[in-house]
Amino acid sequence: MSTTMHQHGGIGESIKRKEDARFLRGKGNYIDDLTLPGMLHMAILRSPHAHARIKSVDTSAAAAKPGVIAVVTGELMAQHKLAWMPTLSYDTQAVLATDKVRFQGQEVAAVVAETKYQAEDARDAIVVDYEILPAVISPDGAKAEGAPVIRNEKEGQKDNHIYHWESGDQAKTQAAFAKAHKVVRLHTFYPRCHPAPLETCGCVADVNPATGKATIYMTSQAPHAIRTVFALVTGLPEQNIRVVSPDIGGGFGNKVPVYPGYVVATAASLLIGRPVKWIEDRSENLISTGFARDFHMTGDLAVDEKGKITALRAHLDSDNGAFFSDAQPSKFKAGLFHIVTGSYDIPTAHITADGYYTNKAPGGVAYRCSFRVTEASYLIERLVTNAALELGLDQAEFRMNNFIQPEQFPYTSATGWIYDSGDYPKAMQVALDKLGYEELRKDAEARRKKGEVTGIGIASFTEVVGAGHGADFDILGLRMFDSAELRVHPTGKAMLRMGTKSQGQGHETTFAQIVAEELGIPAADVAVEEGDTDTAPYGLGTYASRSTPVAGAATAMVSRKLRDKARKLAAHLLEAAEEDLTWERGKFYVKGSPDRAKTIQEIAFAAYTNLPEGMEAGLEGVHYYDPPNMTYPFGTYAVVVDIDKGTGQVKVKRMVAVDDCGVRINPMIVEGQIHGGLTEGFGIAFMELITFDSDGNCIGSNFMDYLIPTAWETPKFEIGETVTPSPHHPLGAKGVGESATVGSPAAYVNAVIDALSPYGITNIDMPVTSDKVWAALRSKGVTE
Ligand code: CDP
User: Fold this and answer.
1) Residue 128, helix vs strand vs coil
2) How far is the CA of 419 from the centre of ligand 1 (A)?
3) In 63-93, which positions are buried (b, 16+ CB within 10 angstroms) versus exposed (e)?
4) Atom of ligand 1 at shortest distance to CA of 542?
């Protein structure tokens, strides 16, 4: 069979996304599209208060409403030992509150009824008597003398402190600071923001009373892990639990945790014996499910007379909300904040972190981020720009002077992490050239002389993605490997099943491309299936840009396993020795006789029809891949802004993004990922904020208050690339999904601070809204 390069769809080809055929036609299959016979609907009653004791819950009026089948309370859940559940960080979280409510929006009771509207009407008839308690809304509040103990139900918990964590060498770092020529300090707050996927969370729980089989269709980025957690929490045998994640309309970390709604719907279906659907509305999603960030950070950089960074120290206070449910590998209390030394050859560092309970929704999800990498990247990139500005040095030159050099890889950072590969000066140079940096700098100086406010911001981020090496990375003890199972049918078409779960990243296309490259079957002939725990091999799911580094590697490895068997089959068919065969994508031929060849399709047919004596039939296999290390994608982002002195409005005039994610499987999809990430980074930098009033009321509970960017606000992106393969990944690929969300906020804010630096303004916390910029300028006497 002859195919052109384009038809084949191997690595490096920008073939169109297979899944878009159904998405563009509105034929995606999302949770809310699912209707099962006899299905009931569930609505959740949430707390209006941030902190209050529950004196009583009266469900009588609700139970009497039309269509109501059941009213579920915390007390009822407690009778089944399900009032509390474990979190991903070894804490506990209330499923339905029994003693107290600890954040506004917390789940208190649920109504199951024949229709959604009946369920919602009856929910509003539940009467709860609360005794309001003082609310804690920040780590400072949590530490304050006499602060109420939010988690008083926990044995031994006397205050609101959750954890203390440290990394690096304190003595060496102190010594370096003692000798520093200049110390640059930055206090900054990475505010609470929300992944806000287009599709909210939800599920349809269907527990079959006859078979005992629980099928839970749900919006989960990690269906296998959820199945195991469900088995442990409910006591149901794991083989009787099937979690199915159908099409998912965006996750960004929001769909990693187990939410109370999933547990209550499953318990209700179990008790009632009918399927139960629960779908959040937008406000429920924004106020109660996994938020991100909420990190208060102080960083210091020590710099010598030659402009070399000699040490970094940082302290973080993390606001974890009412339950410590950060989705992160067990070992790392403060996530992967270790990457805080960034792209720079910093000889020593010391980081400390403390986590606190507050009366806010739990979360700390890695919103398009590998477990706090975003906060780390933001801190170092903001610090580096501030250091350059304070020392009167050029931001780009200061970075070039401090970068880890290409020949230093593999590089061990001051916090002990081994960076796999990188060429930071090259990525920076490509970005500067694309931007026309020298000219722009001169232009900015000239315009500043005329009184204009203009700036250029740079961020040369490095990341750590692809969790992870199983010995170091686990979620609740489950090692973070991933898997691929490949089955080639007699006609040479294939089915690839994965332990990951796409939420829009294009896995059906890119993983088929890996098979196309490695086994020679055109991508169009490889169906990719994810998200059904009854059929897919066990995996830890899709988040933190881990799919390509881990499951992508598993796909390459399983394809190679099948290719080894295909070689034996080809040798049999060609009556040649295995070592005399040459592989060329899609076929084996006898060395020196390209005409004596067997295509992979002919070989697949033989696997079922014409086998050598003693060989097992079929052409299929599975591979569980445990990566030897993480991958470290990187890049340089550069932003040009103009600021209106009269209004404080920031106009992003240029945004140049140069990314290096090693070998690109599908360059078009990679670019799409970068565009999406830059847009989210823009939203975080300038618009998005979940904040709270002093009583703990959540402000930002809808898209009128929580502003996400549209095409109207979003700047035009100019994209560039360099390619530095990962030495340990079988394809040389690194993850990319989160890079732009991680790297871009600092670039946007650095541009604003560069513009405002002539006025002595050194920081504005995100979101950098025009009122904050206006006030900062006014505080420096700028009145125009
Ligand atoms: O885990 P997640 O899918 O969110 O992140 P990822 O591994 O960074 O992949 C995002 C999308 O970009 C997937 O479709 C990948 O296959 C694709 N990608 C690629 O084509 N080449 C890379 N080097 C990295 C990702």
Assistant:
1) strand
2) 19
3) eebebbbbbbbbebbeeeebbbbebbbebbb
4) 1
Active site includes 368? yes
- If one residue of 673, 728, 742 were mutated to test the ligand 1 pocket, choosing by the most ligand atoms within 8 A of its CB, it would be 673
Amino acid at 676: G
pLDDT tens digits, 392-417: 999 999 999 999 999 999 999 999 99
Of 199, 518, 671, 738, the active-site residue reads 738
- DSSP calls for 693-737: -TT--EE--STTTS----TTTPPPPEEEE-----SSSTT-B---T
223 with 501: CB under 8 angstroms? yes
**Residue 451, token pair as written in the block:** 């009184």
Here the tokens at position 457 are 């911001």
Strand pairing of 276-279 and 202-207? antiparallel
Which ligand 1 atom minimizes the distance to the CA of 739? 8
Q: Per-residue pLDDT tens for 574-615?
A: 999 999 999 999 999 999 999 999 999 999 999 999 999 999
Torsion on CA atoms 773, 300, 637, 189, rounded to nearest 10: -50
Residue count of the chain, please give it. 784
What was the pLDDT predicted at 5? 44
Q: Which residues line ligand 1 (CB under 6 A)?
A: 505-507, 510, 542, 545-548, 661-666, 669-670, 673, 733-737
Measured CA to CA, the distance from residue 201 to residue 88 in angstroms comes to 17
What average pLDDT does this structure show over 5-27?
Answer: 91
Tokens coding 213? 């089989």
Region 747-767: what's the mean pLDDT?
98
- Report whether pLDDT(449) > 90: yes
Q: What is the whole-number distance in angstroms between the Cα of residue 167 and the centre of ligand 1?
A: 30
The predicted-structure confidence for 473-526, as pLDDT tens digits, reads as follows: 999 899 999 999 999 999 999 999 999 999 999 999 999 999 999 999 999 999
Nearest atom, ligand 1, residue 544 CA: 1
- Of the residues 14, 420, 510, which should be mutated to test ligand 1's pocket, given the most ligand atoms within 8 Å of the CB? 510
Q: Give me the pLDDT at residue 581, please.
A: 98
Domains and CATH numbers, the chain: 7-15+482-625 (3.30.365.10), 34-133+200-248+255-288 (3.90.1170.50), 372-463+629-779 (3.30.365.10)
As a whole number, the mean pLDDT across the chain is: 96
**566 touches 632 (CB < 8 A):** no
pLDDT in tens, 205-241: 999 999 999 999 999 999 999 999 889 888 899 999 9
For ligand 1, atom 2, the nearest C-alpha belongs to 545
If you take atom 23 of ligand 1, which residue's CA is the nearest one?
664
Of the listed 221, 328, 513, 673, which one is catalytic? 221
Query: Which atom of ligand 1 is nearest to 737's Cα?
Result: 8
pLDDT at residue 700 above 60? yes
pTM over 0.85, yes/no? yes
Q: How far is the CA of 548 from the centre of ligand 1 (A)?
A: 5
User: Do residues 218 and 243 touch, judged by C-beta distance below 8 A?
Assistant: yes
The one-letter amino acid at 420: D
> Residue 763 Cα, ligand 1 centroid: separation in angstroms?
34
Q: In the predicted model, is pLDDT for residue 6 greater than 80?
A: no
- Residues 640-657 have pLDDT tens digits of 999 999 999 999 999 999
Helix (H) or strand (E) holding 141: helix 139-143
Does residue 468 have a pLDDT over 90? no
Residue type at 548?
A: T
Residue 738 annotated as catalytic:
yes
Beta-bridged to residue 590, according to DSSP, are 581, 593
Q: How high is the pLDDT of residue 82?
A: 94
Q: Ligand 1: which of 669, 724, 739 to mutate, most ligand atoms within 8 Å of CB?
A: 669
How many Å apart are CA 718 and CA 604, to the nearest integer?
Answer: 44
From 195, 181, 320, select the one nearest 252 (Cα to Cα): 195
d(CA 561, CA 558): 5
* Calpha distance 577→568 (Å, rounded): 9
